[in-house]
Specification:
Oligomer: single chain
Order of helices and strands: HEHEHEHEEHEHEEEEEEE
Distance between the termini: 53 Å
Helix content: 10-25%
Radius of gyration: 17 Å
Number of helices: 6
Strand order of the largest sheet: 4-5-6-7-9-8-10
Structural class: alpha/beta
Strand content: 25-35%
Largest sheet: 7 strands, mixed
């Protein structure tokens, strides 16, 4: 058996049987910017870290596969690491996925989980939370229609706690619409660092571009900025949440908890 296949089998053995909609407290692992064309570290290290969390769900925050998000690379590299969690993964596309025309590799690999290839955005409920999963690649989809959909989706939602997941952490419109709707969390990647931003109008934003692709420099202005590979572990409760950013050595580098907005 190839080494990559062994890794997938071992990681899959650590996973629980998940029923995301049934529980009121759920564990989520989140990161983006994940798999490079290699069977080596660090994506294997972050995948192992995810397995230790025993998550109910994984939020894959875009640029899941470098350099162009081809289906062959997804099957060869992403699948040999984070592919162990494919059945519980809620993905969003990043700019590197669209290096392949229409992000065809991304949509073929994730299948139904990636939703309509003409949109790439969707929403779902997990535990007591509502999640909007966004596609920020506005050169390739109609983002005006997406913004209207997001406003309507959040307006119709009755959950106290809400989170948005998307790729480009610098994009302002996802967090602006979340603030206006009373949302609580925004999770993104793109910048290859971990960042926690100041709470603004009740919304806390995290950048988690630390899944394995490469490392960069955190932006100025973040409350916490760390350039290391790691994964954000979230515990989503009925009316609150807690977080821990854990690096690949197992060290907790940032943690805290907050109540959701009333």
């Amino acid at each position: 058996m190839r080494r990559a296949s062994i890794v997938v089998v071992l990681l899959a053995a650590l996973l629980p049987v998940a029923h995301p909609a049934a529980a009121h407290s759920v564990t989520v692992a989140a990161a983006g910017d994940i798999a490079r064309p290699s069977f080596a570290t660090p994506q294997q290290q972050t995948a192992h870290l995810v397995a230790t969390f025993k998550p109910t769900a994984v939020f894959a925050l875009g640029d899941e596969q470098y350099p162009k998000g081809s289906l062959a690379d997804f099957r060869r590299y992403y699948d040999a690491s984070w592919g162990a969690f494919k059945s519980i993964t809620y993905p969003v596309p990043g700019n590197h996925e669209y290096e392949t025309r229409d992000a065809a590799g991304y949509y073929a690999y994730f299948g139904r989980a990636a939703k309509d290839p003409a949109k790439g955005y969707y929403s779902f409920n997990i535990g007591s939370w509502h999640v909007v999963a966004l596609n920020g690649e506005c050169k390739h989809i109609d983002c005006a229609a997406e913004k209207s959909w997001m406003q309507a989706d959040l307006a119709a939602d009755t959950h106290r706690c809400e989170v948005a997941i998307y790729h480009r952490t610098m994009q302002s419109w996802p967090r602006q619409l979340m603030k206006a709707a009373g949302g609580d969390l925004a999770l993104a990647g793109h910048r290859h660092a971990y960042e926690r931003w100041p709470r603004a109008h009740g919304l806390v934003r995290f950048t988690v571009g630390t899944g394995g692709g490469s490392l960069g420099k955190p932006a100025q202005g973040a409350v916490v900025g760390i350039a290391t590979y790691g994964v954000l572990e979230l515990t989503l409760r009925r009316s609150s949440y807690s977080w821990s950013f854990v690096d690949t050595s197992g060290k907790v580098r940032d943690s805290g908890s907050r109540n959701c907005r009333p």
